[in-house]
Write a structure and sequence with these properties.
Chain lengths: ~200, ~675
């Protein structure tokens, strides 16, 4: 099985497209609306995330795009704080030399990791425009995601705590396709909003 | 003049110290009910008057420095280092903030000016204003101590007085530089006022949400100043640095972005407190964080902790800022712990799917973005400390981490306004979201059809992918916001019988805050569209002999020669390029390179021709010493003008939001 076939198979398994469609078909609203639709969306989001991740893990292939790509992953070392691919200082003593070296390494058939490693060894770690995925540098990439996930969980817990008992009732209401706990109130609010075109301000 | 300026600063420091001590004593007496020889109210009033007099003293010092620049008083070291005789008038004025000492004096002056307004308007709530004024005086004492002892702007030059000064940094000799730093500083410094009110309200256990209403205008105006300052800085970088971009994730840029992000979060979450009495602790900490981030940003960039291209701002006053930061943080934590029970929320959330929740998620995303920026700025220091290896955290890191967060935030920009307060129904969601979702998908399909595809030569194209997502979400968000306007206007039209556009005007007048906010959101969407255009940049660099041509986008550039010019301030070389479009000459561009005589530093002056679809951006990179022919770099930057147009909309929206809402006739009559 090729990579693309494996990916297609995985996506189908993850989304569960055919069986899900059957389950979600005619009677999903009346039988168990929230659960089945939620499952569908969760699986969809999962598949989308995977597809994006796979897409981003693919690299540029031809020499021109590799030069451009690598040129934007390294800094010019003349202290101008610009990316190598964008440095345009008149009489810059570094960018020309660095670009020539980069072009030579690409022509030599060196892979990206080897090129970045060679530049890092020659000019120091600061030549790389972003932290690597090795050693302590990994922390740079993990921390934002960890903070976001922690903050997201914190917010959800906060919402649960703030909403207290009503959150449980809301879950029950959600199953019936309505977020409003009291149907009479919901109808009244909808009427007010419809007739005033406003909902109490920004 | 140097003696006058120094004396004025010393008097200002003494007045600020008196203000702090007298106000603290008066508030203590009021709180404890103790008797004293002077009534605490009178003592507090003398403190307030000292604050007003302090503004006059700092103004005199600022005037003394500017005047000294204009009369070329080179025995003042600061003026010798940052000005010269031939410097044009407006830039002499800009010399006030072009160096460390001057910019701190500007900070102190703006702080005093804000304090002046605060102390004049104290009758709105005398006690709260007294608390806020005392805290402001404490901040003033710090800045005035810095300009008096650590970075004195009137320090005299030792030895012989030179006939001419070193001149202003060439990077700063650009019209925007005359207004960008003051606006940025107005933003930074302005957040001190809501901070003072928040801390003061917490200290005095202020009942109700009135302090929020009092600070609303302060916060919004300050936020606008900071926004304008940031975008003017972007435009300056775009027009002066000559690399074709506008944001380089430099630590100084990041330092301005962090308080902006927390300030934006505060502007949103504060509505929860006003409307629902919720998120009180959160709001207090948001405004504390905004102020602390302003100080932290200053510390990071001025103490030389992180390397920045804004080298002109670095010095050794970091220790002062570290001490100040620690003291402020300690006071905030202590006051919060002491009075946190006072910040208990009045109400609870009714539903996960409501505007309240959308504000929570908006805050979550904004604060995550702030963390990413702070983390990226500090990681080189952390890495050096932990593994002894300094690394660079540049654009590739932020592009990968910050752009997805930005796009998520963009989605919330559209989703939030469509959700009503308290709770909603599935029917309401369907009704509000169907059209925006359709618009999103239609835009995605259009993008794919016109060739904006997230893949290229069999590989993923990250720029195109983000552009596709950004354009699609922008279409959805724009539709969502416009549909809100349309829905409201239709209701008004039905009620009043006025035509749709008059109804739209009436709608906005009835709730300026809400619809001003929507206009700001539209502005943000327009800015995002402009930023996404960067994915389609094209550039070409070529040496051009006489009548040689260069093709880029729809344009052909023909070199008509290059020449030199000079004046008292600089020598310049520039190329003359005729630009043809469709075989017809449409205009001429003259990109320039200047060498300033005083500093002997070169400076690029980019030629930019801007149309709605793109900017033609031409840089003269100098003459090839071997062939003596000009080297020209031409860049097509798509949609850049959308960024500046979006900012104008943000300014307009903020102005609308600041405008008082018109009360309905029935309500007026009833009052």
């Amino acid at each position: 099985m090729g990579a693309s076939a494996r990916l297609t198979h995985w996506l189908k398994t993850a989304v569960g497209a055919p069986s899900s469609t059957r389950r979600l078909g005619k009677g999903w609203e009346s039988t168990n609306p929230s659960r089945s639709s939620l499952t569908f969306w969760l699986k969809g989001a999962q598949a989308l995330a995977l597809a994006v991740a796979v897409c981003f893990s693919l690299g540029a292939s031809d020499a021109g795009s590799r030069f451009n790509n690598l040129g934007h992953r390294m800094m010019c070392t003349c202290s101008c704080a610009q990316l190598l691919g964008e440095c345009n200082h008149v009489g810059c003593t570094q960018s020309g030399q660095e670009r020539s070296e980069l072009a030579a390494m690409i022509a030599n058939g060196d892979n990206d990791e080897k090129i970045l490693g060679a530049f890092s060894a020659k000019y120091g770690a600061t030549v790389l425009a972003a932290p690597t995925a090795h050693g302590f540098d990994v922390v740079a990439w993990i921390a934002p995601v960890a903070v976001f996930v922690a903050a997201l969980l914190g917010t959800i817990l906060l919402v649960r705590r703030w909403s207290g008992v009503s959150f449980k009732t809301e879950k029950a209401a959600f199953k019936n396709g309505e977020f409003e706990t009291d149907p009479a109130k919901a109808a009244l609010r909808d009427k007010i909003r419809r007739e005033t075109g406003a909902d109490g301000g920004f | 003049m140097a003696a006058f300026g120094s004396l004025a600063l010393l008097i200002a420091l003494a007045l600020a110290a008196y203000n702090l001590l007298a106000a603290s004593l008066a508030l203590r007496l009021i709180a404890t009910g103790q008797q004293a020889r002077i009534s605490p109210e009178r003592l507090a009033d003398t403190a307030r008057r000292a604050g007003i007099a302090g503004f006059v003293a700092v103004s005199a010092a600022a005037f003394a420095l500017v005047y000294s620049v204009f009369i070329n008083d080179f025995h003042i070291a600061y003026i010798m280092e940052h000005s010269n005789v031939a410097l044009p008038g407006p830039y002499k004025f800009a010399a006030l903030w072009s160096g460390q000492e001057g910019s701190l004096l500007l900070w102190a002056w703006l702080l005093a000016a804000y304090g002046f307004v605060l102390r004049l308007t104290h009758k709105r709530d005398v006690k709260l204003y007294a608390y806020a004024g005392a805290i402001l005086a404490a901040v003033q004492v710090f800045f005035l101590a810095v300009v008096n002892f650590a970075a004195p702007p009137f320090a005299l030059l030792k030895g012989a007085i030179p006939e001419d000064g070193n001149g202003l940094n060439p990077l700063l000799q650009y019209p925007e530089m005359v207004i960008h730093p003051p606006l940025l500083y107005l933003g930074y410094v302005g957040f001190t006022i809501p901070f003072c009110f928040a801390l003061g309200a917490l200290m005095m256990r202020y009942p109700g949400e009135k302090w929020i209403k009092i600070t609303r205008v302060w916060t919004l105006v300050t936020w606008l100043f900071l926004t304008c300052g940031i975008f003017l800085g972007m435009h300056w970088a775009y027009a002066v640095l000559g690399w074709g971009g506008y944001w380089g994730w430099d630590p100084v840029e990041n330092a301005s972005l962090m308080p902006w992000l927390t300030g934006t979060a505060f502007l949103h979450s504060v509505m929860m407190q006003e409307k629902k009495g919720m998120m009180k602790s959160w709001n207090v900490w948001l405004i504390f964080s905004t102020f602390l981030l302003s100080i932290l940003g200053t510390l990071l960039t001025r103490a030389g902790l992180v390397s920045s291209v804004h080298a002109f701002a670095q010095s050794s006053i970091g220790d002062w800022f570290v001490v100040f930061l620690v003291i402020v943080l300690a006071v905030c934590i202590f006051t919060y712990i002491l009075n946190r029970k006072h910040l208990k929320s009045d109400q609870q959330l009714e539903s996960l799917v409501s505007r309240e929740s959308s504000f929570l998620f908006n805050n979550l995303v904004l604060l995550t973005a702030c963390f990413v920026v702070l983390w990226g700025t500090l990681f080189p220091i952390l890495s050096e400390y932990v593994v002894g290896n300094k690394v660079t955290v540049g654009a590739p890191f932020y592009n990968r981490v910050a752009i997805p967060i930005g796009l998520f935030l963009l989605i919330l920009t559209g989703v939030g306004p469509l959700l009503p307060w308290r709770s909603t129904s599935m029917r309401s969601i369907k009704r509000n979201f169907v059209v925006p979702v359709i618009a999103l998908w239609v835009m995605a399909i259009i993008c794919l059809v016109v060739g904006i595809r997230p893949w290229k030569d069999g590989a993923i194209d990250q720029g195109n992918f983000y552009a596709l997502v950004a354009f699609s979400i922008s279409a959805g968000v724009l539709t969502a916001i416009l549909s809100e306007f349309g829905r409201g206007a239709r209701v008004i039209s039905k009620q009043t019988g006025k035509n749709f556009f008059v109804a739209m005007y009436l709608l906005v007048r009835r709730n300026t805050r809400r619809y001003g906010g929507y206009v700001i959101h539209i502005g943000v969407v327009i800015v995002v569209v402009g930023l996404a255009g960067a994915a389609f940049n094209q550039n070409i660099e070529k040496e051009l002999g006489l009548h040689d041509k260069l093709n880029i986008g729809p344009y052909t550039l023909e070199c008509m020669g290059f020449t030199q010019d000079s004046n008292a301030n600089y020598n310049s070389e520039y190329a003359m390029l005729d630009v043809y479009e469709g075989g017809k000459k449409v205009f001429q561009m003259t990109p320039e390179k200047r060498v300033y005589l005083a500093t002997e530093q070169p400076q690029t002056m980019v030629a930019i021709h801007s149309v709605i679809s793109w900017d033609l951006y031409v840089v003269y990179e100098g003459a090839n010493p071997d062939t003596n022919q000009p080297i020209i770099k031409a860049i097509i930057n798509p949609l850049v003008s959308w960024i500046w147009a979006g900012v104008l909309l943000i300014i307009f929206g903020t102005a609308v939001a600041l405008f008082p809402s018109q009360k309905p006739a029935a309500q007026k009559g009833g009052q």
